[in-house]
């Protein structure tokens, strides 16, 4: 899981995921659709799936 450090507004809502600061996101994959490891495939609490920039989030442990 990860927590958003900043707001992010996607430039392409068919691929990217928009989110707000402090949103909790589930990480589904550590790269994007072209194997760029600066992006993560994530799911929002509402169930939307898309890619997010890795430098906008903080990894968290829910243990």
Fold and architecture overview:
The chain has 63 residues and is mainly β. The chain is built from no helices and five strands. It has a single domain (2-59), classed as Roll (SH3 type barrels). It has strands at 2-4, 24-29, 39-43, 49-53, 57-59. A hairpin with a 5-residue loop joins strand 3 (39-43) and strand 4. The radius of gyration is 10 Å and the shape is globular. The model has no long low-confidence stretch (mean pLDDT 93). Residues 1-62 form the SH3 domain. This is SH3 domain-containing protein. It holds the Pfam family SH3_1. Keywords: SH3 domain.
- Average predicted local confidence, pLDDT: 93
**Count of discrete alpha- or pi-helical segments spanning 4 or more residues:** 0
The CATH class label is Mainly Beta
The CATH architecture term is Roll
Elements, N to C (H/E): EEEEE
CATH topology: SH3 type barrels
Chart the SSEs and their pairings:
Blueprint: E1 2-4, E2 24-29, E3 39-43, E4 49-53, E5 57-59
Antiparallel strand pairs: 1-2, 1-5, 2-3, 3-4
Essential attributes:
63 residues; mainly beta; SH3 type barrels; five-stranded antiparallel sheet; SH3 domain
Compose a concise summary of this entry.
The chain has strands at residues 2-4, 24-29, 39-43, 49-53, 57-59.
């Amino acid at each position: 899981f990860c927590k958003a450090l900043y707001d992010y507004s996607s430039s392409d809502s068919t691929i990217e995921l928009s989110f707000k600061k402090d949103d909790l996101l589930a990480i589904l994959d550590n790269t994007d659709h072209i194997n760029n490891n600066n992006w993560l495939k994530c799911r929002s609490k509402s169930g939307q799936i898309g890619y997010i920039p890795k430098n906008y989030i903080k990894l968290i442990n829910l243990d």
